[in-house]
Specification:
single chain; 93 residues; mainly beta; 5-stranded antiparallel β-sheet; 1 helix
Length: 93
């Protein structure tokens, strides 16, 4: 193949979806529907996510990147966790 241009094959685009785990609290949006819930199941490539929604909407399936957005909610620390991070509270006099 000397002198001939090597034909390049187009590379397949690899989409990296957010890595959500079962039990994560999430926020979702799809069309006009939005809300929060808990992840019930995910596929091995994280493309499809099932969420038990809050507000009585039941269990919903979301296909990441096809009109739906699912993102992890940051949890607020509980009272015990915040005390552990700040250290012991001095006794009041």
């Amino acid at each position: 193949m000397v002198g001939e241009a090597a034909t390049l094959r187009p590379r397949r685009k690899r989409t990296r979806h957010p890595r959500l785990a079962v039990g994560d609290r999430v926020r979702f949006a799809e069309g006009t529907v939005a809300g929060t819930g808990v992840v019930d199941a995910v596929t091995s490539n994280y493309a499809i996510i099932w969420v038990w929604t809050d507000d009585g909407q039941g269990r919903r399936m979301f296909l990441q990147g096809c009109g739906s957005i699912v993102s992890r909610l940051e949890m607020e620390p509980t009272a015990q966790e915040s005390v552990a991070q700040e250290g012991p509270v001095p006794a009041a006099c």
